[in-house]
Amino acid sequence: MDRIPAMKDDIFSIVGAGAIGILFVKLINLAGLKAVVIDLDDQRLILAKETGADHIINPSKSDLISEIKRITPIGIDSAILTVTNKFTVADALSYIRAGGQINIFGMGLNIEPIPVDFNKLYKGELTIRSTYSATPDTLARSFDMIVRDKKIDVSHLKSEVLPLVDFKKGMDLMLERKIYKAFFRI
Predict the structure, then answer these.
(1) What pTM value is reported for the model?
(2) At what angle do helices 64-71 and 86-95 cross, to 10 degrees?
(3) In the chain, where the domains are located
(4) Of the residues 17, 109, 114, 175, which has the maximum number of CB atoms within 10 A of its CB?
């Protein structure tokens, strides 16, 4: 969030309602801004709504652009992509307002190059940036927000607690989407 300039009343889209997407919803809420969460999984969208999303959209069940225009006729101010592929980038470019920004936060491994309409980027004066890693200061502030100050509750993000010896089993269950998030105890 430190790298995303925001103004009062900005509307953010968060693409991907996994653990990182839900944390972005909470940060956007803390900043007093609006969050529109986009995901193909209805269960994740329900969790996003329960944790503070102002709007949720499943683009496989409704027209994404029409839904965005219903929320904000000028378009989304900032899009955060926790899922980045040719579809999510193209979608974001289609609903970002002129002068808006896209932040690439999650990127799959070994994906094909993503085409970008530079004409739209240029004429719309859009910004695309990426965020790959946190600074020690950001990590310390995050720890404080979650652990010390309890501004962000993450208890609902864990669905299973497993012993550390079951690490592979927990990762496999997460990859198979049989559990949401595993935590391991030593």
Answers:
(1) 0.86
(2) 40
(3) 11-130, 156-186
(4) 17
